[in-house]
Amino acid sequence: MRKAVFIKIGGSLITDKKGGTLSIKEGIISDIGADLVDIIEERRIILANGAGSFGHPVVKSYRIDENGMNPEGISKVCSSVDHLNKVVVRSLVEEGIPAVSFPPRSFVYRDMSGNFVSFKEPILNMLRLGVVPVTYGDLIFDERRGSSVISGDDIPFLFSDLIDTAIFLIDMPGIMDEKGEILRKMSEGSLNLVKSCEADVTGGILGKVKKGFMLRKMGIRVVISGFSKKGDIKMALKGELGTELIP
Length: 247
Ligand SMILES: Nc1ncnc2c1ncn2[C@@H]1O[C@H](COP(=O)(O)OP(=O)(O)OP(=O)(O)O)[C@@H](O)[C@H]1O
Ligand SMILES: [Mg+2]
Prior knowledge:
Radius of gyration: 17 Å
Shape: globular
Largest sheet: 8 strands, mixed
Number of helices: 8
Mean pLDDT: 95
Helix content: 25-40%
Bound molecules: adenosine-5'-triphosphate, magnesium ion
């Protein structure tokens, strides 16, 4: 099977992450779906949507990041991220994408050492059928902490042997330098340009870039890009949009 493309639809892009309200930008999700219609003609795709305002504030209010043992908190967080993912999948299906939801908590957990242990066969077989799996930022069982957050940015590591490209879509045109200009290419040496100013429960943009460089070292092409209209994902895939991480 030819290697797949992983695309993370950032919570910053499809929810009101900065305002914190529970609104979903369905128009953007539909435009992403319309873009993916062309891409699935040629490539297999694994998607993940970030949790945005449906994840981080609920995690904080139940202090799941400090204590993952609270069953009410676990349930509330899961219910919230499930709702967003359902809307994402429905919008994609309406655009003609054979999208199917795969909640991370049902195929991956963290062991005592903090490593992911996953059961991926159902997803891999669905991928072979031509289905587009849609995973998401979720709460997973954690042997040490009871439960802990898995970011959509962590999902490509679970599929690192299956993907050759990872695209992270965010609400900015890409990674910006201190003058507010986009870095078209970024090496690890310029990591200090990205400040961890507003880190959320999964590490924000700094966490994303660090994970991006880890993927890059595994031989996976990584592009962090904005998305404002149909066609943008295709451009990002060609390296014509966003920030490409370089060795
Ligand atoms: N140098 C920078 N370049 C680009 N974005 C930056 C930079 N510094 C801070 N940011 C912020 O990082 C945000 C993107 O990271 P964030 O983790 O919030 O989004 P996300 O991964 O799409 O959301 P989620 O984690 O919910 O999926 C942008 O909205 C932007 O405000
Ligand atoms: Mg994030």
